[in-house]
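I have been asked to look over a protein record a colleague put together. What it holds is a sequence and that sequence's fold in token form. Please read both lines and tell me whether the tokens look consistent with the sequence. I do not need a full report, just your reasoning and any doubts. This is what I was given:
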Amino acid sequence: MTEKEIMLLADENIMNTYRRFPIALRKGSGTRLWDVNGREYLDLVAGIAVCNLGHCHPNVVAAIKDQADNLMHVSNLYYTEKQAQLARLLVENSFADKVFFCNSGAEANEAAIKLARKYAHENMEPDKFELITMKDSFHGRTMATITATGQEKFQFGFTPLLAGFSYVPFNDLTALEKAITAKTCGIMLEPIQGEGGVIIPDAQYLAGVRDICDRHGILFIMDEVQTGMGRTGKLFAYEYSKIQPDIMTLAKALGNGFPVGAMLATNKIAKAFAPGNHASTFGGNPLAMAAAVATVKTMLQDGILEQSCQTGEYFLSRLKKLRQKHQIITEVRGRGLMLACGLSVEGSDIVNECLKRGLLINCIGGKTLRFVPPLIITTQEVDQAIDILDAVMEGK
């Protein structure tokens, strides 16, 4: 099919829930994508922080092919090998003792919300069910997770929302402590706000949240759907703070493009779930588990985390130099390969111009350019991206 035919067919038959760019992509490899016309693009979006090992990483592709030849799906009424292996990998490399598998970040966060309420119901006062989340956060698109999301634009038109959520400013411990009531059972946040603009809190903020939770006897839920799996230079972003959450959620890069999510917890908290309390038909699917096992093993064995740190520092330094040259850049921030430029102008024109020059980038909140490339990106490719951004910004 031609590019035009693909677009027309999609527009005629798919619900209008996405603002798509006028290209149809057909192939990916590493940090590169190609459209149906054969045009090449340098990808700094990576499926929105999903393809951390790059597109079609050979280890992941081989794992999926091998698994597809043997077993594609069975019910969670039975044990499967890759599911057990992935659970062990995640437990061995995190604070957690137990894992629940699902299909997406929203499902993982939904599971976390349910687990927190179930634990509170059994171990706290009967009326403790409320969660405090952060303004400008993003936790998903289900009814519970858009309620947890502290942005009205995602909630508009879907009221009444689920009861039991309140919001405080991110990076404000005073406001957080004041918001705790007799009904609060936990606090849920992203260690770095992704959709909110790559907002990094003060160095002691997460430790302060942990202290507040401990003093009030409530749960700390960490949403690492975007920050997890090496995006910030460590396997999980909470590692920078030297503290541990009670519950953590993962998705996006866990399967390097194959849909998979996970909710992790300590034994103490996980015991609140018993058979029948929560489930997912496709959660822990053998294909997803095979992809995720290959992803995690590759990330831990191939120096991906170290590369992410080093290239991220280089990318950040190049963005800071670009800011010195272009007044429309108001701020540069980031950690690892989760980076952003604040702008004084709308960013959509910059994104579109970069697209025309073969560079895929992302604009969030109108005036923030977000860069979440595959973690395998090289310094030479960073230079290529910066050169394109520089040229696009010349006339702004």
Observations:
- The chain has a mean pLDDT of 97.
- The chain has two domains: 3-57+303-393, 59-301.
- The longest strand covers residues 329-335.
